[in-house]
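>> received
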Amino acid sequence: MISKQRITNVPRDDISLRPDMYPCSLCWKDNLTLIIGWGNSVKICSVKERHASEMRDLPNRYVEIVFQFDTEFYISGLAPLCDQLVILSYVKEISEKTEVECCARPRLDIVQPLPESCEEISSDALTVRGFQENECRDYHLEYSEGESLFYIISPRDVVVAKERDQDDHIDWLLEKKKYEEALMAAEISQKTIKKHKILDIGLAYINHLVEKGEYDMAARKCQKILGRNTELWEFEVYKFKEIGQLKAISRYLPRRDPVLKPLIYEMVLHEFLESDYEGFATLIKEWPGDLYNNTIIVQAVVDHLKKDPQNRTLLRTLAELYTYDQRYGRALEIYLTLRHKDVFQLIHKHNLFSSIRDKIVLLMDFDSEKAVDMLLDNEDKISIDRVVEELENRPELQHVYLHKLFKRDHHKGQRYHEKQISLYAEYDRPNLLPFLRDSTHCPLEKALEICQQRNFVEETVYLLSRMGNSRSALKMIMEELQDVDKAIEFAKEQDDGELWEDLILYSIDKPPFITGLLNNIGTHVDPILLIHRIKEGMEIPNLRDSLVKILQDYNLQILLREGCKKILVADSLSLLKKMHRTQMKGVLVDEENICESCLSPILPSDASKSFNVVVFHCRHMFHKECLPVSNTVSPVQFCNICSAKHRGPGSAILEMKK
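>> returned
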């Protein structure tokens, strides 16, 4: 304008429109961006500097259209709004009654410009007086850039439009009953909102959910909305009580930081106790015992048990309440009555061994394995004698305890080994023989008497052999068990010639026994002794095979003996050579050595004097004259010291003379 120079011509798109009826609308978004609205066309132009090489006679600036699009209606005014546009539109529509085109209410639209089109963000129809007679030129749009206010001017009215803030958005959401979205919006914009408080929106949301009957959702939202505000928590709990929905909020009540008044928790527990035992038990298990008055709840449960004394859920819950109250003895009684799996854990955790001294039978009836392990692990708290005494009237349980004790330590319960013989015989025959073998404290006579009374052959045989009566034991095996293999095995273990003789005598008229003996006797007794006694004409099963086996065993023995002889001869020769080499070696004799008889140095101090020294293979040294005269005619001399100590003769290896 200063240089009065046109830099660019932007032509009209629709030249049929009268400029006086449809004026051009201009506004500057910034110093270099001009927005043009004319008819139903919008152009956004950017003023740019021309490059020096392109100047010539052209202006130093030019305009480039960066966005261009058409609208559905005629433009009466426009203004920038950040990256968007506010457009005031003049609208014509066809009347449904007269089917004649008439003027409609003007519209205020917010659009997002695109390169060749636009996206409508919002649209509002404005009610102004006399809009039916107005033309496009009668409307104007002005804006206050600093205050984000827009003024819509018509012949009769001025409408002020203001950009909505987050408070307006929340108002709209609350009006539409979109409480969750309103709460989320308030949380996101909590620093900028002025009219609303998150807590108020949250409480309204809870009330809305309650009104809709969504009690569980309302209770769940209390955790987030009420937070640590104990007064609001208590208010909401009473509100849920009034509508009979205490159960819904019970799962979400705070248990730590904050903690509500004990009355609140007791009120919820009483509600469950009246209608839902399982739910009551769950709350007792989940809630810490210090949230409520334990005595009041215990009394309430006891009152209910009077009506239903066998209710396992109430009994189990009462035991847990007693545990919270540290009345472990009563809790233990209930757990034992219920045979509850936590009874052993309770005893260990709270060291209740003094309380179970008179309840050992109950524990054993419940789970004998766990009970015995626990009792044995805590012998210092409950002695073995006390346990055995408590189980006196239950011998089968007494046996279980003593058997486990014996397995752990063969000597701890030795005073009860005599009693255990009867217990094993009555309740655990398979373990009787191992017990008799491992115990060194049970009276053998008593054990033998019991086994003979009950006709326990294997145990009687073992006891007879242990008492030294092997012949009676062998006789019982042959007469009672009729088991030749067992008899042979027994004879092998005892390794007694008289037993073999008895076995042969007993078997001589029994062909099956003879066969067994022929097959097994070869390595212990000369088979000829047995063969000579077999009567002529007696039929013996598999005799040929048995004789072949005897010959093979004999041949094997010969081979073994020859092999052992070869090894023995070779070892003897090797050791003899080694001894000879050792004895052929020289022996160091110097001034430090002494005569073992006179204890003076073995070598004379004057080397010129003659001396005579005897050195034995055992390294003992003597002066010749100190050795006693031998009474034997043998030319070999022996060391007196080694001979006296029975270490061997220690024959002389060297005689030194000078």
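>> The CA atoms of residues 519 and 546 lie 5 Å apart.
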